[in-house]
Give the backbone structure.
Amino acid sequence: MTAVDHHLPDAPEANDVTDAGPPDAPSTGPSNAEVSAADASAVFHSWSKQGGLQPLPLAGGLGTRVWDHDGNHYLDFSSQLVFTNMGHQHPKIIAGITEQLQTLTTVAPAHGNATRAEASRLITKRAPKGFSKVFFTNGGADANENAIRMARLVTGRDKVVSRYRSYHGNTGAAVVATGDWRRIPNEYARGHVHVFGPYLYRTEFWASTPEEECARALHHLERVIQAEGPSTVAAILLETIPGTAGIMVPPPGYLAGVRAIADRYDVLVILDEVMAGFGRAGEWFAFDAHEIRPDLITFAKGVNSGYVPVGGVVISDEIAHAFDDRVFPGGLTYSGHPLAAASIVATQRAMEEERVVENAATIGRDLLAPGLAELAAKHPVIGEARGVGVFWALELVADPDTREPLDPASVARLKADLIGRGLLPFVTDSRIHVVPPANVSADDVHQALAIYDDAFTAVGAR
Ligand code: PLP
């Protein structure tokens, strides 16, 4: 597998997506080349060889659009790292952060703070009954880190079962709970066990139907727990819908089956909603569409559209009460930082007022599902289009029959072609993830589908 590709190729030629963005887009100031050179000499980038990186500089953004320093505009169908669920520069979120900035910019976590309490209330309002508290972190990794810690402390058990096809973050336990290649050079935490989850397109279980895939994945999970010794297993940690690993919406019954297995062995369930939550899957929490009640829920990204770094753990009352008379040995200087809390409050209110979750569900059902299926039928390079809401993956294949993944050079060409046509794509391994903001308009989706179509045609013609 290759690295998550956060880095875009060279700045493309000026493109024709110029009908949006601010009228006063910067015409003076540094050029792309100047910003790239400054970046290359001063910034150490994530998950990358540092030599030869040429990140596309972005100067500004508004809604679904971003623009660079040379006046090129792009439709942002990456939502950056799948977090700008409300698009760029949403005025209500900017206003909420600004108001907090002018009132109380920072406060230690030990103090009470009204904005923080309101942020927690607005998040727990979306959780099932019996979740009253949130532990705030700086992002998604430390949310998972602390959820794992809570599960271990409450159960007195050590092991955490997670999937090979997963990403849970960059910290000590979270990166080892991660299944993808990023775990392997960082494998210093103990007590982590991995399983394969359902992924019919590339089945590990020789399955030919979703029902077979589901039943066999559940059997495999239960056998691993039995073989590990159920009394050693604290939790099963799953992304409700694995995101970076390929947007595999669980087949009906899978998550209910996971819950049943967990209950048989008194194991807790942690659902990682960092990428899937807050509108991405057309639900407040992606698990709302499935029959499962987790014990701990982790979140970040879409909760505040990524405007200020923040994440957290939504804690079931049973687990929260376990720490009523016992110290929780965990904390962060910026836990519940007021600017982060204000950004959550403003985002959550705006999402409700503007019916953004409903919009994501409708866009997914009425436009992306048929539009991407049409592209897959037309272009043999697309082996499968799958997803829900504004959370879709296109499997790129060299051969639709063997499903051999498209080679990295062709994937890179496709990515460069999309950027040249004015669309910022999310590309990882041999997939394009179609992940616009949850408040994307139908017009922007139509425009994006036309750009994908042109790019696939151009690549197919080569
Ligand atoms: N969990 C999931 C599902 C993610 O997609 C990510 C980040 O991409 C994380 C956890 C880690 O979040 P962060 O990068 O904010 O630490």
